[in-house]
From TrEMBL:
<keyword id="KW-0010">Activator</keyword>
<dbReference type="GO" id="GO:0003712">
    <property type="term" value="F:transcription coregulator activity"/>
</dbReference>
<comment type="function">
    <text>Component of the Mediator complex, a coactivator involved in the regulated transcription of nearly all RNA polymerase II-dependent genes. Mediator functions as a bridge to convey information from gene-specific regulatory proteins to the basal RNA polymerase II transcription machinery. Mediator is recruited to promoters by direct interactions with regulatory proteins and serves as a scaffold for the assembly of a functional preinitiation complex with RNA polymerase II and the general transcription factors.</text>
</comment>
<comment type="similarity">
    <text>Belongs to the Mediator complex subunit 10 family.</text>
</comment>
<feature type="compositionally biased region" description="Polar residues">
    <location>
        <begin position="1"/>
        <end position="16"/>
    </location>
</feature>
<dbReference type="InterPro" id="IPR019145">
    <property type="entry name" value="Mediator_Med10"/>
</dbReference>
<feature type="region of interest" description="Disordered">
    <location>
        <begin position="1"/>
        <end position="31"/>
    </location>
</feature>
<keyword id="KW-0805">Transcription regulation</keyword>
<dbReference type="GO" id="GO:0045944">
    <property type="term" value="P:positive regulation of transcription by RNA polymerase II"/>
</dbReference>
<dbReference type="Pfam" id="PF09748">
    <property type="entry name" value="Med10"/>
</dbReference>
<comment type="subunit">
    <text>Component of the Mediator complex.</text>
</comment>
<protein>
    <recommendedName>
        <fullName>Mediator of RNA polymerase II transcription subunit 10</fullName>
    </recommendedName>
</protein>
<keyword id="KW-0539">Nucleus</keyword>
<dbReference type="GO" id="GO:0016592">
    <property type="term" value="C:mediator complex"/>
</dbReference>
<keyword id="KW-0804">Transcription</keyword>
Length: 183
């Protein structure tokens, strides 16, 4: 039997409270969240124990009932103190979905579908601009073939002129145009 339990599987509130206060001294958000989750699970276990005690209540089970009630109150108090250290922001839409009895995963699905739709719209716009650029170059090439050829040479030279240089003394990598001086 664990030293934190009395006879009958009841958690000793004093030892439970001491263990909870030593666990909550961390400032790590993930650890704080895990502690709150563990406290919620412990609270649910205590509520289940209370349910079992109340459903089979008799005069002899009054003391265990009071001990379990005290344990529940202490755990709820500990949970309240831990919650202050957790900064979790939940979108109101998720809370509204939960209030309406819907699955909160619907919110995530809707957000992802919205992002996909916006991405497709943006991709369509990008493709339209590429097509427009190509069409303009074709039209310009018919009207001004020498200028378009010179433009394409400049673009090719410019694109090839960007080179990656590393500086041995400082270590960072610089992107330079051939006309720019490094030093």
């Amino acid at each position: 039997m664990d030293s934190s339990q009395n006879s009958g599987g009841i958690i000793n509130p004093q030892q439970n409270s001491e263990a909870s206060t030593t666990e909550t001294t961390s400032d790590d958000p993930k650890q704080n969240l895990n502690q709150v989750i563990n406290s919620i699970q412990k609270t649910l276990g205590l509520i289940h124990q209370l349910y079992l005690t109340v459903s089979s209540f008799n005069v002899a089970s009054q003391l265990p009932l009071l001990q379990r009630l005290n344990s529940l109150v202490l755990e709820l108090d500990t949970m309240t103190k831990m919650v202050d250290k957790c900064n979790i922001q939940i979108p109101m839409e998720v809370l509204n979905l939960i209030d309406e009895g819907k699955n909160p995963d619907e919110f995530t699905r809707d957000v992802l579908n919205g992002c996909i739709a916006k991405n497709q719209i943006t991709k369509g716009k990008t493709d339209a601009f590429k097509s427009l650029r190509k069409h303009h170059l074709e039209e310009l090439e018919q009207a001004f073939p020498d200028e378009v050829e010179s433009y394409r040479e400049i673009r090719a030279t410019s694109a090839a002129g960007f080179e990656v240089r590393s500086c041995c003394l400082w270590g960072p990598i610089f992107m330079n145009h051939p006309n720019d001086e490094l030093f």
